[in-house]
Amino acid sequence: MNVIGQKIKRLREEKGITQEAMAVQLDVTQSNYGRLEKDDRRLNVVKLLKIARILDISISALFNETEAGSSENGGMAHGNKEVYDILVESLRAEIQHLKEEISFLRVIVKS
Questions:
Q1: Which residue, 92, 59, 90, 89, is CA-closest to 77?
Q2: DSSP state of 45
Q3: DSSP assignment of 54-69
Q4: Where do runs of H (alpha helix) occur along the chain?
Q5: What is the CA 4 to chain-centroid distance, rounded?
Q6: Over its length of 111 residues, how does the chain's per-residue pLDDT go in tens digits?
């Protein structure tokens, strides 16, 4: 079941944001954005962080059952800090991987 995608859709609709507006801000087509809401396997850390920023919610609000922004610390429940930390670490790992790819490509270009 696509729980995260459904939650994103509900929050987007509550805020009166269209799929088209979300797509523009995420730099994807409207049809690709629609697929994100239907198939959360397409979501990655970067997209989740952008979506949370666009919807003006904490990333943990996407992963818990409480209303977005209802807990202390700007909407991040203490127990969900772990989820946020995992996402941040995942993003750091993705950045490191991209740096390694860039270094590799530089070596190839110089050859």
A1: 59
A2: H
A3: HHT--GGGGTSSSPTT
A4: 3-14, 19-26, 30-38, 45-55, 81-110
A5: 10
A6: 478 888 999 999 999 999 999 999 999 999 999 998 987 677 888 888 899 999 999 877 887 755 444 444 444 444 456 666 767 777 788 889 899 999 999 999 998
Find all residues with CB under 8 Å of 31, minimum gap 6, and list them: none
CA–CA separation, 36 vs 50, rounded Å?
13
Gap between the Cα atoms of 72 and 13, Å rounded: 24
**pTM of this prediction?**
0.61
What is the three-class DSSP state of 29?
coil
| Contact criterion met (CB below 8 Å) for 46 and 91 | yes
